[in-house]
Structure formats: C-alpha cells, structure tokens
Amino acid sequence: MKADFSGVSNNSRGAKKFLKSGGGKVQLARIMKFSKYHALGNDYLVLDPLDCPEMPEGIDVVKICHRNFGLGSDGILFGPEKSDKADFKLRILNPDASEAEKSGNGLRIFSRYLFDTKRVKEDVPFTVDTLGGVVKCVVSKGGNSITVEMGHVSFDAAKIPVLGATGEVVNKEFEIDGRKYKYCCATVGNPHCVLPMDSVSSEIAHRLGPKIENMTSLFPNRTNVQFLQVLDRNNIKIEIWERGAGYTLASGSSSSAAASVAHKLGLCDGDITVHMEGGDLSIKIAPDFSITMTGPATPVGVYEMSPEVLSQSVPL
After folding, report:
1. Exposure check for the chain: N or C terminus, fewer CB within 10 A?
2. pLDDT of residue 4
3. Rounded to the nearest 5°, which phi and psi values hold at 65?
4. DSSP for 166-212?
5. The pTM is what?
C-alpha cells in the first residue's frame, strides 16, 4: 500500500512539497545523524541542521519515523535554526509528514538536546520560536527537569479553529456512531478537542480518536484529541490521540489543554498533575490561562541512519 497523504492538514508543508515533487529529496541520500530522546515514552528524533542542512519532508519523514522500516519515532525535531524572534527556532514534523505548530514534549526534548550540546546553561531561561508561537524554557536538575511556559490557552472557536461555532467552545455536543458526546476545544498554539468522561482507556482513544481527529467538518486543520477523567481537584487522567501520530503515551500540549479544560469547567484548581500512560506532568494554570509545564526528557542514544532507509518502499 502506498503512502496516503489525503488526510494531511493544510499546514503540512513537507507533505504538499512531496506531492508536487513525486518523491523524497535526492540530497538526503546520505547517512544522517539523529539524537533520540523520549519524554514519558513520547519519543522524538532530533535532527540538527549542522548534521543535515535540509529538513526532510514528505515520504522521507514517513520512512525515518517508521517503527519497523526506519529509526522509529513519534516525530522529528529539526533545529536549532536561526530566529529573529527568539534564541532558537524549532520545526516539528509528525510521522505522517505534517508539520505541528507546537509540542510540549517536543519542546522539553529539544531543550534537553540544547543543554546536552552545551548551547544553553542550567537554570538560565531561553526562548524557542515555533509555528505555534515563542515559548520560554529552562533546564534544571542536571537536565532531568525542564519547565516550558507554553503560552496562553484560548477556547475561542476562531483561534482554534472550529467551524460553525462562535465564542468559546465549551460543553458542546457532537454525535459519533449514534452516541452523543460532550466536548470542549482549546488551542495552546495547536488545536485540541477534549472529551470529559467518567473513566478513560486506551481502547476509547483508539476507537474514537481517529474519527474525531479527522472530523474536518468541525476541525479544518484536524485536531489533537484528549479523553479526560478528573480524579480530584489537583489530579486528572488523560488518554491521548495525537494528530498526525495516533495513540500517544504522553503529550505536553495535550496535558496543557486537558488541564485547562478541567480548570475552565470548575472541576480542578490551578495546580494539576496530569497522569498518562507514560508518566506524569505538572501543569500550572494562571488566572489568565497562561500555562507552565514541568517534566522530564530522557536521552536514548545517537543513531546514524543508512541512506538505504530512504530508498526502500514502506508498507503502511
């Protein structure tokens, strides 16, 4: 089965270039060096422009991220690049070749990579430019804890965006397979749809996640999906279906969105621990709904990928 990019969102620059060119870029047909990290089981490959000046795109991204035929990851972090807005610039690629606006886990991993390569110092704040806005980060505890100021959460339909809605998208309702579900939508620089439930499971995420992600009648850019269970005033549990990546063990932006929804609904206070399959994150919500996220990022290893990976076909 050939790669299908029909579901790729409008912000997928790499995928659109691939469709026009008809294949991967020839100049990538050489050994590429990647640094792999995970953030609570959500793993990314960091590709430094010093090692590869051209960012991979289209089917090349799909092959690199493939769990069986490539190095395997939940995405590629391309950077640091130069920015006139911040200290560093980061590009975030999903495994389906679409480009993400922002990733909380990706930002923590990128911050740890900058620390490990001695571009930033411990406990000294720095800024990162993403498609979803500029964020402030700081690495502490010898690299074992990273704090990211994720920006302000908005529930406004026009900013997310959500089609056919006006004002804040809170406690709305849609129907899937004959059953009605309450949902709230938010953006922290990328779109999220949060479904409060009495209990959550990976089965629910796998069953409903892809349907909601690709509900383009509501979400023109597709959406990340979180299934939210409130445990008490300071603890929530979420299951995650990530746009362009699928079922995910942990997500920083998903944690930020889900915690903000729980706080918006009056179910939680401003300090929230988000429990996920991969582990826990700390989210602090200010009165203006600006978000501070704190959690780990762990190095896995450095890999040199053979150019043969890009020359082979990939079953999807």
Report:
1. N
2. 34
3. -80, -10
4. -SB--SEEEEETTEEEEEEEEESSSEEEEEE-SS--HHHHHHHHHHH
5. 0.88
